[in-house]
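S1.2 Input.
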Amino acid sequence: MLSACGGGEEETPVEATPYSTGVLRDSAIAGMYYETGGKSGVTDSQGRFSYRPGDKVAFFIGRLKMGEFTPTNTNALLTIGALVPADSPDRSSIIAGMARFLLTLDRDGNPDNGITVDSQLDDLAMGWTFRTLDFTNFDIATNPNIYIALGDIRIVKEDMGLDFVSGTDAVNHVVKSFNCAYSGAFVASRGSGTSPSAIFALTLQ
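S1.3 Output.
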């Protein structure tokens, strides 16, 4: 009787999906802590972060969760609007409020050179007992959490008289940043093969 010996088929190791680099911007947002899959980090001076397409990315200031998004493509460009679910009530007001909050905490108060979350503020925010903020209500008399956040921003910026950037300025900034993020020329064709029936060009400025 003959008997055969030998093992089963050799398994081919499954390669992990490589990390891609995305950008978070209102203006470029630096110093924002993020978590994705088994990785965490802080956005760099250009607002860049690492992620794998299909993995959720969550962004934080201390314990405060600013929002999350699941990029499906490589080289994702996220505005702060991407962090607010499309079906959220008062979505536009939330986005404007997030911009208002970020513009106020920006280290040098000049969003034209980017928005920077100071590491000292991030440390103070680790002591916040709340993990979300109502970005539609900046009345410190009725929103105690926004009052606590403003107090720590004042400490970090060494300006105890500091108040939040106005809602109008925040909205104007959001519009300007969106136009800047998606400006450029885009060309598309209609038809197939080497003889498209029409070609369209769109320029955003």
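S1.4 Remarks. The CA atoms of residues 20 and 115 lie 22 Å apart.
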